[in-house]
Write a structure and sequence with these properties.
There is one protein chain. By secondary structure, the chain is mainly beta. About 0% of the residues lie in helices and about 50% in strands. The strands form two sheets. The protein has a six-stranded mixed β-sheet, with no helix packed on it. A hairpin with a 6-residue loop joins strand 5 and strand 6 (about 60). It starts with a strand and ends with a strand.
């Protein structure tokens, strides 16, 4: 069965860093464009970043450009989100998703607080 499992979330101080992982199974990951989304309390889910199947093309929300980096290792069926210079407004549950299919992980909590 198709499965996406996020990990790597936690509590970090403003200005700190976290690296999220998304482990994929049940489909051909290397042929699938992928995305990261996030949802903060009381807010709508929003796109964070996209990555193409090979990793050769990426796109970012304006709010995270220059701070976050999306990447993937197709040999490991894993996608990553490196988050630097974290701000309190980055606090959210982060989800991975197949870009063109309604397949989601369960999410991992990121909390940025002093």
């Amino acid at each position: 069965q198709v499965q996406l499992v996020e990990s790597g979330g936690g509590l970090v101080q403003p200005g700190g860093s976290l690296r999220l992982s998304c482990a994929a199974s049940g489909f051909t990951f290397s042929s699938s464009a992928m995305s990261w989304y996030r949802q903060a309390p009381g807010k709508e889910r929003e796109l964070v970043a996209h990555i193409s199947d090979t990793g050769g093309s990426t796109d970012y929300a304006d709010s995270v450009k220059g701070r976050f980096t999306i990447s993937r290792d197709n040999a490991k069926n894993t996608m990553y989100l490196q988050m630097n210079s974290l701000k309190p407004e980055d606090t959210a549950v982060y989800y991975c998703k197949r870009r063109n299919r309604s397949v989601w992980g369960q999410g991992t909590q990121v909390t940025v607080s002093s």
